[in-house]
Amino acid sequence: MEKKTGGRPGIERRVLDVLKALLCAYVVTGILLLVLTLLLYKAGLSEENVNAGIILIYVISTFSGGFVIGKLAGVRKFLWGLLLGVVYFVLLLLISLGIYHSLQSDLMNLGTTFLLCAGGGMLGGMIS
Questions:
Q1: Which of 56, 62, 89, 102 is packed most tightly, with the most Cβ within 10 A?
Q2: Residue 96: CB atoms within 10 Å
């Protein structure tokens, strides 16, 4: 017998699913940033290569998070993936603001990063 909590029981589960997928995306981000750091140290990558690597890491991380949320949600996977990409970007922005106390890039770069994060999450959700 199910216990009634007075609210919508699916909301708590969805929030937990989003948190699981975000954790997955940030773990992938951490691992890939570590690999990029090792490549920078060992191979002496140029600034352009590092920037391209960071962009690729954003896309791969949000793709993996979108894939996980798509598997967990089961329905409207692309919307859940899009939501995950947007939340990933917002957290990334808040962390950056917390560390640097200002935005380190212009609006064009922020817009591009937002689209890449949202698109990567949505693609991951669609593929799942």
A1: 62
A2: 15
Q: How far is CA 16 from CA 12, 82, 97, in A?
A: 6, 16, 25
Contact 84, 28 (CB under 8 A): no
Amino acid 48 reads E
First to last CA, the chain: 32
How crowded is residue 78: how many other Cβ atoms within 10 Å of its Cβ? 18
**Dihedral, CA of residue 119, residue 123, residue 126 and residue 128, to nearest 10:** -130
pLDDT digits (tens, 9 = 90+) for 42-68: 998 888 999 999 999 999 999 999 999
Give the pLDDT band (50/70/90) at residue 1. Answer: very low
| Residue in the block written with tokens 């940033």 | 33
Contact present, 85 and 24 (Cβ < 8 Å) = no
What is the pTM (predicted TM-score) of this model? 0.87
Residue type, 78: F
Question: How many residues are there in the chain?
Answer: 128
Please report the pLDDT score of residue 9 as a whole number.
64
Residue 110, number of CB atoms within 10 A of its CB: 15
